[in-house]
């Protein structure tokens, strides 16, 4: 195990906000040592995979009812009710609906936790600072992720990535180690882009008002020729809109407009599982190294994210060869106007 390095930028009692953080630090250290964030997401992923693999059995349980404390929960499935006509709603399979939406929610939750922890630790002056970064809702996390991950080069990320995920500095004369660091930085970039892109779909699911299950198919091709399916399979559709914008020059300047549209996102469970599993490895590495670095405990164990780029790289986080092409579709609905 690597020896914990000295706390980076550790503040003295004189400049630590009156010593308040120092007073609560022993309790925080005890909490940090006894927790593993990644296991929470891994457990949710395991439950999701079990539901998906044992779908028929679970549908039988839902139809007959499941006792939960003093309640009996029944989720009738249209598929198992042969006498019922299929309703017009797309949400006709509660279990499939749950699996699809939970996949999107779990992806967002794990990636947001990863980047709250990464950006918080990158700026940490004290071990409790990452906890503040996780809880402070006024902190613009998307802006932090763009500045610290998306909009900078892999070279510029090296020192932070090696410090937070591998607990050691980058040595210029160690090309194999640099390759590992650069691979981690590239993986973080892929995950960051995925999180930024899918934030709207998660918000639609979180609020539960403007989202619908879908099994959409998008086919393209020249007129008069056979079409090719470029998007198909399980998907979610949700209603979204742009921010209010002033009318363009030459039009009615007294009005603001925003465009409403329906977005369809196809869900690929294999790809999602790889992203989730990778995020959990990085979360646990960030957490364990930070605990070992900042905590006075002698038994803190570091779990380095030493991912061999020859075995797993950022390019492996995409879809499998037999998956449909990764594609999202936007269909404009209407333009709303209001007085400026």
Can you offer a commentary on this structure?
The longest helix has 29 residues, at 94-122. The protein is of the alpha+beta class. 24% of the residues are buried. The chain has a domain at 22-53 and 89-209 and 269-329. Helix 4 packs antiparallel against helix 5 (129-135). A hairpin with a 2-residue loop joins strand 1 (66-68) and strand 2. The chain starts with 19 loop residues before the first helix and ends with a strand. The chain has ten helices and nine strands.
Please outline the helices and strands.
Layout: H1 20-33, H2 37-53, H3 55-64, E1 66-68, E2 71-73, H4 94-122, H5 129-135, H6 141-150, H7 154-165, H8 175-197, H9 199-207, E3 211-214, E4 218-220, E5 228-231, E6 235-241, E7 245-246, E8 255-266, H10 269-294, E9 328-339
Antiparallel strand pairs: 1-2, 3-6, 4-5, 6-8, 7-8, 8-9
Helix pairs in contact: 2-4, 2-10, 4-5, 4-9, 4-10, 6-8, 7-8
Order of helices and strands: HHHEEHHHHHHEEEEEEHE
- Which structural class is indicated by helix and strand composition? alpha+beta
| Mean pLDDT, all residues | 78
The total of beta strands comes to 9
Major sheet size, sense and barrel closure:
5 strands, antiparallel
Number of helices: 10
Rg of Cα set: 24 Å
β-sheet strand percentage: 5-15%
User: Which stretches of 5+ consecutive residues score pLDDT under 50?
Assistant: 1-18, 80-91
Question: Which percent range fits the helix content?
Answer: 40-55%
- First-to-last CA distance: 62 Å
Shape category: globular
């Amino acid at each position: 195990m690597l020896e914990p390095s000295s706390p980076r930028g550790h503040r003295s009692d004189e400049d630590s906000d009156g010593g308040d953080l120092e007073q609560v630090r022993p309790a925080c250290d005890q909490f940090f040592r006894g927790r593993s964030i990644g296991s929470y997401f891994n457990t949710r992923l395991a439950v999701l995979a079990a539901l998906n693999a044992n779908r028929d059995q679970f549908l039988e349980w839902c139809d007959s009812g499941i006792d939960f404390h003093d309640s009996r929960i029944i989720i009738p499935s249209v598929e198992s009710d042969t006498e019922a006509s299929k309703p017009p709603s797309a949400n006709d399979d509660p279990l499939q609906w749950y699996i699809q939406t939970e996949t999107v929610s779990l992806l967002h939750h794990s990636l947001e936790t990863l980047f709250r922890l990464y950006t918080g630790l990158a700026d940490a002056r004290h071990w409790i600072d990452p906890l503040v970064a996780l809880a402070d809702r006024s902190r613009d996390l998307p802006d932090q992720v763009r500045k610290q991950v998306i909009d900078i080069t892999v070279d510029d990320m090296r020192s932070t990535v090696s410090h937070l995920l591998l607990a050691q500095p980058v040595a210029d004369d160690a090309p194999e180690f640099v390759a590992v660091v650069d691979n981690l930085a590239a993986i973080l970039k892929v995950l960051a882009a995925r999180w930024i892109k899918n934030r709207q779909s998660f918000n639609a699911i979180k609020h539960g008002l403007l989202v619908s299950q879908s099994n959409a198919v998008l086919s393209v091709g020249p007129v008069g020729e056979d079409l090719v399916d470029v998007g198909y399979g399980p998907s979610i559709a949700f209603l979204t809109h742009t921010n209010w914008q002033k009318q363009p020059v030459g039009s009615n300047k007294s009005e603001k407009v925003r465009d409403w549209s329906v977005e369809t996102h196809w869900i690929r469970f294999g790809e999602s599982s790889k992203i989730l599993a990778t995020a959990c490895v990085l979360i646990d590495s960030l957490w364990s190294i930070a605990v070992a670095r900042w905590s006075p405990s002698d038994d803190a164990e570091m779990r380095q994210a030493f991912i061999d780029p020859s075995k797993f790289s950022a390019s492996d986080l995409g879809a499998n060869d037999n998956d449909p092409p990764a594609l999202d579709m936007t269909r404009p609905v209407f333009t709303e106007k209001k007085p400026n």
